[in-house]
Design a protein that fits this description.
By secondary structure, this protein is of the alpha/beta class. The protein contains 13 helices and 17 strands. The longest helix is centred in the last third of the chain and has 13 residues. It is elongated and about 80 Å long. Strands 13-12-11-14-15-17-16 form a seven-stranded mixed β-sheet, sandwiched between helices.
């Protein structure tokens, strides 16, 4: 059985290990870690040690691992905290993995700040998309720990926060924690971080200073509109009922087809920040309107796609498990057939019908793709024409 001994270390240059770990290093032959790790531990390794650098692509690293029955791996902090031990367990499920953790970087930063961190939410941006970070901001979590990388740096993160109006946090930055000579800790406002320069590796703790408004239901008058036409936006009561029928709490990827102003996408992101939302609109001016509304209401992470939906290469976007059709340009049946190619069985499609013609067209399209209309609610808002909200599964 292949064995991995994964030892967590910090940037400290005078490492002290338990006796068990020291014996393991002294008797080891094959070692692995990042180049920074090698520089830290090189004087502790046996003279005949074999070293395997952990660099991308990782498949090349794993191929080298296959040649050795036992490997001592050095990793940062706690190897099971968004760490390399997790990767080893996934790639080598039959191997035996033993971990010897150190404090992870966020723990170390909290210690430096004398900050209780038992209620801290943790987000990793190390080689990962913005999704979890965006969700944490929208939810307004009081304390957010952030693991960074070489691209998602403190200035880039702070700029994203400010772009979407999240200046209601203080940012504590820990640079090269554990390194006696180079360690630095700063606490700054996001606007101060944007133009700063910070040594890697680093991590952040965001502390909320004020609660940002997160309405349940946004008035249509508050949105930026297409040519100022208020009739081109889904009214708030209809929007909320539409989202309710989509059952988005239990979905992961939502498509908004014919988004116009983006009101449905923005409302969905506010109420269900975990969602990956892809919004489609034929009119190119829709992108600017959606972007303005996302910044106004603090909803980063919505992907806007312009052009004729029937010509879009859908495989480039996350497959949906819920779909709303807000605009169809008279091609509703064709759109439903195309949606059917990538929407799993049992996942909802919701359509807001403004006329008997569009209602019958939707029902015809649903029959054509072998699905069923399961719910219809008719609603009138103020003096506007009645709307039928139709759900199919």
């Amino acid at each position: 059985m292949r064995k991995f001994y994964v030892i967590g270390i910090s940037d400290e240059r005078r490492l002290r290990f338990p006796a068990e770990v020291e014996r393991m290093i002294a008797s080891g032959r094959v070692f692995s870690g990042g180049r920074r790790h090698r520089e830290i531990v090189r004087t502790m390794l046996p003279h005949d040690a074999v070293w395997i650098d952990i660099t991308v692509p990782l498949d090349d690293v794993f191929a080298q691992y296959e040649e050795h029955p036992e490997i001592v791996v050095f990793a940062s902090g706690d190897p099971l905290f968004f760490g390399f031990a997790n990767t080893l367990q996934r790639v080598f499920p039959d191997a035996k993995t033993m971990t010897f953790p150190s404090f992870n970087s966020l723990q170390m930063l909290a210690h430096r700040l004398e900050m209780p961190y038992n209620e801290m939410s943790v987000v990793s941006l190390t080689g990962r998309p913005w999704d979890d970070f965006d969700a944490a901001l929208i939810e307004g979590r009081p304390l957010i720990g952030v693991l960074t990388d070489r691209e998602k740096t403190p200035p880039v993160i702070a700029a994203r926060m400010l772009e979407y109006g999240y200046d209601n946090y203080r940012i504590a930055i820990g640079e090269r924690l554990g390194n006696e000579a180079d360690e630095r800790v700063h606490t700054m406002k996001p606007a101060e971080v944007v133009n700063g320069t910070f040594a890697a590796p680093n991590c952040l703790i965001l502390s909320r200073t004020a609660v940002r408004s997160r309405p349940f239901g946004v008035s249509e008058k508050a949105f930026f509109l297409l040519d100022g036409r208020v009739n081109m936006i889904t009214k708030m009561p209809i929007r909320l009922l539409t989202l309710s029928m989509l059952d988005l709490r239990h979905r992961n990827s939502f498509w908004d087809i014919g988004f116009c102003t983006g009101s449905v996408s923005v409302e969905a992101k506010l109420q269900f920040p975990h969602l990956r939302i892809t919004a489609f609109e034929k009119r190119p001016e829709g992108v600017g309107i959606l972007s303005d509304n996302c910044r106004k209401f603090g909803t980063p992470g919505i992907t806007a796609v312009t052009g004729d939906f029937m010509e879009v290469e859908l495989h480039e976007y996350p497959a949906p498990d819920a779909v709303f059709i807000g605009g169809h340009g008279g091609r509703l049946i064709d759109i439903l057939k195309k949606v059917d190619t990538c929407l799993p069985t049992g996942c909802p499609i919701v359509f807001n019908s403004v006329s008997a013609t569009s209602r019958e067209m939707f029902k015809e399209g649903i029959r054509a793709i072998g699905r069923n209309v399961t719910e219809t609610i008719r609603m009138t808002v103020d003096a506007h024409s009645p709307i039928e909200i139709i759900k199919a599964e």
